[in-house]
Amino acid sequence: MKSLVVIFTLFFSQVSFASKCDINEDTILKNESFTNIFVGNVTKAYIEDFPEFRGSKRAVAEFELVETIKGNPEKLNFVYFVNGGHSIMLGQDHLFVTDDKGFSHLCSGSGVINYWPISSTSVRSHIYYRLKDKVVQ
User: Fold this and answer.
1) Cα–Cα distance measured from residue 45 to residue 48, given in angstroms and rounded to the nearest whole number
2) What is the rounded average pLDDT of the residues 89-93?
3) Short-list 114, 116, 117, CA closest to 129
4) In sequence order, what are the residues at sequence separation of 6 or more whose Cβ sits closer than 8 angstroms to the Cβ of residue 29?
5) d(CA 128, CA 24)
6) How confident is the model over 13-58, as pLDDT tens digits?
7) Euclidean distance between CA atoms 93 and 112, whole angstroms
8) Strand 56-70 relative to strand 36-50: parallel, antiparallel, unpaired?
9) What distance in Å separates the CA atoms of residue 62 and residue 65, rounded to the nearest whole number?
10) Based on the number of CB atoms within 10 Å of its own CB, is 34 exposed (0-12), middle (13-18) or buried (19 or more)?
11) DSSP 54
12) For 80-87, what is the mean pLDDT?
């Protein structure tokens, strides 16, 4: 049986906020808080309480590391999403851009790659390849 793909999207804030993000490989590389850039295959995802953030909740993605572009993602066990709408697809590769604790910001560029039925992933995949080119240079 092929990998089970489950899509869930969290909207803790207005989706219109996402349109205010200017995400490209240069903005990702210039942001000093983005210490880890990597590809991981999501193996598990769930929502948990996160009282440290105004008593809110956070999405948690567990992953198998596929490729490291920058940083030390092998030290992370989870990627956390606390603000905004992110799609997390089980069994799919994701570009993750996180801080040193594994938190991904709404405007980090994190999300599923190489899943063409969703049009925004073609843009993210393009950013992934350009990031790889710039970091390798």
Assistant:
1) 10
2) 89
3) 114
4) 70, 131, 134, 135
5) 9
6) 333 334 466 777 888 888 888 899 999 999 999 988 887 766 678 8
7) 6
8) antiparallel
9) 10
10) buried
11) T
12) 72
pLDDT of 116: 58
Instruction: Quote the CA–CA distance of 29 and 19 in Å, as a whole number.
Output: 20
pLDDT of residue 58: 82
Could you tell me the two tokens for 86?
Answer: 């992110």
d(C-alpha 100, C-alpha 117), whole Å: 31
Q: How far apart are CA 102 and CA 73, in angstroms?
A: 8
Structural contact between residues 110 and 34, judged by C-beta atoms closer than 8 angstroms = no
Specify the amino acid at residue 13.
S
Residue bearing tokens 């039925």: 117
